[in-house]
């Protein structure tokens, strides 16, 4: 089963592995910073004979600033730049081993890899820390069960198992925390990526519950977000806002992570759907949602990014959240009729898996499909409606020239 995940948008710099602002780890297993390391992947993709069939995708995920994305395949892994779109690196292993999880650390040379597929390159119960300067793994973390997902920060490695989460210090791989969760086969976990303290969100110990760990204040908050099991959630870049959806997939709720208060509720639709990804814009003004219904939705958020407990006032340049025309009698009719609906939509193939993130160009979204599709679209923030497709690629086809 493919693992697909999205990360908060933060840094608009599109220069891959900029040495001025990216941490680079040295060539020793201790993984301490090395200021002299060359912070560049190979800038040209390796050639692939046109006779070879496209690989099968096992994993798709954006990096922490949404400027790149990683693809794990049954042959290895690949790294792509979003804008401009191009393949910038690939590693196909000699044994043809599969990679089921690829987690980037912003744009530096360090990756976290987990084997996957019918012929895994590494054991599925190990996290391999790969340094591409050396073209090898520099350290590993072993567990008693399969690794479901990995999250990276410059200071932490978070490993998600079926019912437990481990938090490690990146420099020396010292275990800092262990968190028990309800059964979590998708490996759901979100971490803040701002320069401030770490905020970690994971499933709680009850159906429909999420757990928020505030590491700076050493506090834990449990939020009963839904009646059904949690299907997807996402944090804003600073960790102050949390968007959640349940297995029903009809409602998305936005919470304040500090006090657990419900700030806003929006409706994706009336029919049950599987939510694949949720993504905040960098200023927390917009929320994007992808599901198996084949439509990506963009919602307008009414929360001040700097003060999530307050509602942003509407101005002439901002859209009014779409409501049912019957909302004036919301106290009489069911809640469905007064729901807040999406401002903009983009139609895709129904039933396929897609993840979404906001692009670095204003009012754009980037959509990735497990079928190898890449879309860049633009939405009208005032009038809404159908998004405009700006770009399309199939990044798995070997004959595509980047």
UniProtKB/TrEMBL annotation:
<feature type="compositionally biased region" description="Pro residues">
    <location>
        <begin position="47"/>
        <end position="56"/>
    </location>
</feature>
<dbReference type="Pfam" id="PF21032">
    <property type="entry name" value="PROPPIN"/>
</dbReference>
<feature type="region of interest" description="Disordered">
    <location>
        <begin position="1"/>
        <end position="56"/>
    </location>
</feature>
<comment type="similarity">
    <text>Belongs to the WD repeat PROPPIN family.</text>
</comment>
<dbReference type="InterPro" id="IPR001680">
    <property type="entry name" value="WD40_rpt"/>
</dbReference>
<keyword id="KW-0677">Repeat</keyword>
<keyword id="KW-0853">WD repeat</keyword>
<dbReference type="InterPro" id="IPR015943">
    <property type="entry name" value="WD40/YVTN_repeat-like_dom_sf"/>
</dbReference>
<dbReference type="InterPro" id="IPR048720">
    <property type="entry name" value="PROPPIN"/>
</dbReference>
<feature type="compositionally biased region" description="Polar residues">
    <location>
        <begin position="1"/>
        <end position="28"/>
    </location>
</feature>
<protein>
    <recommendedName>
        <fullName>Autophagy-related protein 18a</fullName>
    </recommendedName>
</protein>
<dbReference type="InterPro" id="IPR036322">
    <property type="entry name" value="WD40_repeat_dom_sf"/>
</dbReference>
């Amino acid at each position: 089963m493919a693992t697909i995940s999205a990360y908060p948008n933060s840094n608009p710099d599109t220069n891959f592995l900029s040495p001025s602002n990216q941490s680079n780890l040295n060539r020793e297993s201790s993984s301490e910073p090395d200021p002299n390391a060359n912070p560049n992947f190979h800038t040209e993709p390796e050639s692939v004979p046109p006779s070879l069939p496209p690989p099968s995708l096992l994993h798709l995920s954006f990096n922490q600033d949404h400027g790149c994305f990683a693809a794990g395949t049954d042959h290895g892994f690949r790294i792509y730049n979003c804008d401009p779109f191009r393949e910038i690196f690939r590693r196909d292993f000699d044994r043809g081993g599969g990679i089921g999880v690829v987690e980037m650390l912003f744009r530096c040379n360090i990756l976290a890899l987990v084997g996957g597929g019918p012929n895994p390159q590494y054991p599925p119960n190990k996290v391999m820390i790969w340094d591409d300067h050396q073209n090898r793994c520099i350290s590993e973390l072993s567990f008693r069960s399969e690794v479901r997902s990995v999250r990276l920060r410059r200071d932490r490695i978070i490993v998600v198992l079926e019912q437990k989460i481990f938090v490690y210090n990146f420099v020396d791989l010292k275990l800092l925390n262990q968190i028990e969760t309800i059964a979590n086969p998708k490996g759901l976990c979100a971490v803040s990526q701002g320069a401030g303290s770490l905020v970690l969100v994971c499933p709680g110990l009850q159906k429909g519950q999420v757990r928020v760990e505030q590491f700076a204040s050493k506090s834990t908050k449990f939020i009963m977000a839904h009646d059904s099991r949690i299907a997807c959630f996402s944090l804003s870049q600073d960790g102050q806002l949390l968007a959640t959806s349940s297995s029903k997939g009809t409602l998305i709720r936005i919470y304040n992570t500090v006090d657990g208060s419900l700030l806003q509720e929006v409706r994706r639709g009336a029919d049950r759907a599987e939510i694949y990804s949720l993504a905040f814009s960098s200023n927390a003004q917009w929320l994007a949602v992808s599901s198996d219904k084949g439509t990506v939705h963009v919602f307008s958020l009414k929360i001040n990014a700097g003060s999530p407990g307050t509602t942003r006032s509407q101005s002439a340049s901002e859209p009014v959240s779409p409501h049912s025309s019957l909302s004036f009698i919301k106290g009489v009719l069911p809640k469905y009729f007064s729901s807040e609906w999406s401002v903009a939509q983009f139609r895709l193939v129904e039933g396929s898996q897609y993840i979404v993130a906001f692009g670095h160009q204003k009012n754009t979204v980037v959509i990735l499909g497990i079928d190898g599709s890449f879309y860049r679209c633009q939405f009208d923030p005032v009038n809404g409606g159908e998004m405009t497709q700006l770009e399309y690629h199939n990044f798995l086809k070997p004959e595509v020239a980047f």
